[in-house]
Specification:
This protein is mostly helical. The protein is built from 9 helices and 2 strands, in the order ααααβααβααα.
Length: about 230
Amino acid sequence: MKKHIPNTITCCNLISGCIATYFAFQGNYAEALLFIILGAVFDFFDGMTARLLHVSSPIGKELDSLADCITFGFAPSAVVFSYLCTFHIHQVWVPFLSFVMAAFSALRLAKFNLDERQALGFIGLPTPANALFWAALITGISQSSFAMPPYTIYILVCLLAVSCYLLVSEIPMFALKFKTWGWKGNEVKYIFVASCLPLLFLGVFGLSVIIAWYVLLSVFTQQKLQ
């Protein structure tokens, strides 16, 4: 019976992604963000549960990737697509570019399953971080009282291209995993956590800033992580 517990949690991740996608297409970005965050929680606990119960299996690994494709690939792409559709431009195909990110997310997950270098860190941007960045960014923008200029759509498309590159890049990015709690060897992690605390006061938008800061800090310190 216990061997089914991690897979059940993984399915909860997948269901969260489906619900997030529904809210995204409805233009309810805050609700979509909430269920993406909930999916990330389930994603964290399914792996932890599998390790604690010693019941990891190949099917669990495949199911986890499938769930992640939905929650951290398709759902954030749907959020961006829905928001881009609010801009009245002649190039009606532009919003569909958001789904390219879903494809790159799937490619990122496939590479992760085969890459043995990512036990203590990541190579490229993790899909949950990318999903949280976009869901929080669009939610923050939509809740802003400022009217977005028409060219915002092109800025977002450029950011999409950057995200797609980061997902499959060879840039080492640190993970918040601690072998010891000492300062030595954990400098980057502690600096990141401490610097993120003030950003929380920015509200929902602060979450996207935190992800952007995570990427920048990883890029600046990648030589120390290799």
